[in-house]
Model the fold of this input.
Amino acid sequence: MEGRTQKQLIIGIIFVLILGGIGYGIADKFFLVEATCFDNIQNGKEEGVDCGTLACGKVCEEPVRPLQVSEDKLFRIGAGDYDFVAKIFNPNTEYGASQVDYSIGLAGAGIKRGTTYLLPGQTKYLVLTSLRTSTETASAGLKVNSVQWEKINMPAGEAEIVNRRGVFSQDKTAFEGVIFNDSNYDFDSVDVSVILFDSSNFVVGVNRTEIRTLLAGTERSFKVVWPAPQDAAVRADVQISTNLFENSNFIKSYGTQERFQEFY
Done:
């Protein structure tokens, strides 16, 4: 390529770039929508709704993902009397479900409704006992109807309650254990669920109880009873949970009431 032609080509490229820059500037000023960062609408250079490092100076958070339900199971205890368990997983690591409204459809025997809660990243067995029905049923399924999400600010282990020991009675009709409040907070109510597994790791029975007033650094014993021996069970998992979203659950200390939620 001759020097003159090469020079003309370079000048042409520079000219195109200049025109493109001027055109983009005009479009950016007069035609492109400006980012507002406060109107609950994704516009301008926002990477999400009212967020984006360049547009709004803040990183967009991951969208809240729905709860995952599995392992629905119904246990017949007596005539028109059932226990129920379902496994629920919260895949969100920053958001907790402060109120989960659910319904349990009992095949041919109506619907039972209730509420529960899950912490960020928590896997929880929802255990319900003494479900009474007027007709017999063979199966049940859990449906999540609505979830109230809240961003909770609490370091891992801050409100830890641990199971120290537990044992079946000799005839396997009861399970007794001891839990320990390994935190600095006093709780008004603590839920204790016992999930029984067989040798194939399938859930074969459940039970639950509630402990009222669990002070910081103290132990409390619990006991659950079944009307018949749980011979298929080879192990029992103890699930301990307390509602960190409910202010009234924290017993007042030093004249103040603790609060862990932060709303955004």
